[in-house]
Amino acid sequence: MALAPPRHFLFEITMVYIKKIVVVFVFFTLAFCALAQTQPYEGVPGWTSTKDRRMEWFKEARFGMFIHWGLYSAAEGYWKNKKYTQHYAEWIQNWAGVSSTEYAAVLKPKFTAAKFKPRYWAKLAKEAGMRYMVLTARHHEGFTLYNSKEPYAINNSITGGTNISPKGRDLYGETIAAFKDQGLKTGAYYSLLDWQHPDSYHTMGRSKSPGEVKPEHQVYKNYLYNQIRELSTNYGKMDVLWVDFSAKNNEGEAWGTKRILTDLIKWQPDVIINNRFWDGLENKNGDIGTPEKYIPSTGLPGMDWEVNHTINESYGYSAHDKNWKSYDKMMRLFLETVSKGGNFLLNIGPDREGSIPDTAVNILRQIGEWMKVNKEAIYGTTASPFQKMDWGFCTQKPGKLYLEVFDMPKDGQIKLPLSNRINSAYALKNRDAKLNVSNLDKAKAISLPNHFKGKLPMVIVLEITGKPEVSLQPGPTKNTNNIVLLANQAELRNEKGIKKGINDGGVNPSWIDINDYLTWDLKIQKPGKYKVLIQYRTKEPIEGTWGISLDKTNFEMRINEDTPGNKQKDVGVLTVSQNAIGMTSLTLEMKLISLKSDSMIELSNITLIPL
Ligand code: GLC
Description:
The chain has 611 residues and is α+β, with helices and mostly antiparallel strands. It has three domains: 43-377, Glycosidases (TIM Barrel), CATH 3.20.20.80; 392-464, Immunoglobulin-like; 483-610, Galactose-binding domain-like (Jelly Rolls, Sandwich). Helix content is 23%, strand content 27%. The protein is built from twelve helices and 28 strands. The chain has helices spanning 7-36, 51-61, 72-75, 92-96, 100-107, 118-128, 151-154, 171-181, 217-233, 257-267, 327-339, 358-374; strands at 63-67, 78-79, 82-83, 132-138, 185-191, 240-244, 272-273, 288-289, 304-310, 343-348, 392-397, 400-405, 413-416, 422-427, 430-434, 437-440, 443-447, 458-464, 483-486, 491-494, 497-501, 517-522, 528-538, 542-550, 553-561, 565-576, 586-595, 602-610. Helix 11 links the parallel strand 9 (304-310) and strand 10 (343-348). It is globular. The termini are far apart. Residues 1-7, 32-36, 474-478 and 501-506 have low confidence and may be disordered. The structure holds alpha-D-glucopyranose. Alpha-D-glucopyranose (GLC) binds at residues 88, 90-91, 244-245, 292, 308, 315. Residues 88, 90-91, 244-245, 292, 308, 315 line the site of alpha-D-glucopyranose.
């Protein structure tokens, strides 16, 4: 009978094994983390080292034109007379669930470009004060505004070909040339998604033939590479490549980004790329972050960025989208962006003939009038040194602060928490009339001109010595990014539908039936996580569980209150997906799951706070 090894010997052997396992585990974990973590520009050389030089003009420019033009422009936000109210009319194929074959057959004949005047577009942009443009060379539908020589683009059995320029023309090339003529920088928007190519990742809208072959992604990656090469080598200098878009399971190497970036920097050594080869609008890859239809509350620290925004709601032309922003609203978005250190890429959506809607032209002209007088407060400026001010925004250049005043303070004075000496103060509209500056305790008061006649916002220049020194931070201002859902704006429902409106000063005593629930329709402009805060009143002890849901995420909240009174509770976090941003409205739902007490809470409001 073999002797059993002594206990301490067994212990040592076990320890050796455990150590080995730990070492192997740590090694693989580290290796996995290194692989999983994308290096900037996929580690492709030539990008990081040239970034400052490549970004120079972009930081100076601050203002550009985005153009969405494609077959979707011919659908005009309708399919077979049905109106699709979703915000993104360029997604009509997806909203209506149309096969690419039918989509092409219906829209190609309608997309005539009969009134297309690229010189007029370019002049309009220039007169608005824009310094660059980005044009949809191809959008998610997979059709190209330029003449691609790729075999699939020239002819295929699904859509007959992707090139949609009238015979003998190249709408992309003509537009790019016209903008260059006006001295503007030019860029290509290029969709990584493709709803028609049989080997793409995104099968929606493709005609489904039985027994369809499995997509070969490598074929699609080659197609992307070849098309990007065409755009980068056939149209002279390309200042921006603006790709769109990625998701967690589809980013970077899924598109063959390494190969593309390796060659792109050789084809176009000065080009700027956005961050959408990778997932997330604020991800730090690439040269610029791309918040879409929203302005990040604190800008995007540590990176260059550009907000792209719309004048109405949709990027692509929509005949029924009349939700035009006013000049005032547009300017506030523009100045808020620039004052936080970002660029503003403002979209137009020409129609199927190439006409730009009058309202958009009108807004651009008004912005142009303002820019003529005040461009100095935009080009080459950097972010405001101050927190949000009640009267407007601020931009700066070395030795100068620009105050963009939208709302005149009642006493005609701007009080600025600034310690620096102000050498001179004047309005850009009238540089010779010097404004009176007085010293307050650690602040300055600037008397505004009495009868300002120019276009708002009025821009005041403060010439200062040295870097701005902010003496007092202005008091907390309310965060306008919060979404407040009042109880009296909710629909009270049960399984039979809407029960009755609630209107009782913000609380809802009519919500007493356990089968009832509350819904709010809301629009959200920014994907991401939202903290949920609820305010309610209790009159008697309450114990119960409620469920809150929004855009496929939900959580349960328990309330157990012994004492009556007004309460406020941080109850959970909801996530809003990128896809939900294109929806006309989202529904937030609040349901009762179980109730132990006899009475219900009286809800006052639910507040969503972006995280
Ligand atoms: C989005 C949309 C698209 C739009 C764009 C602008 O991701 O899919 O329709 O072109 O980005 O930012």
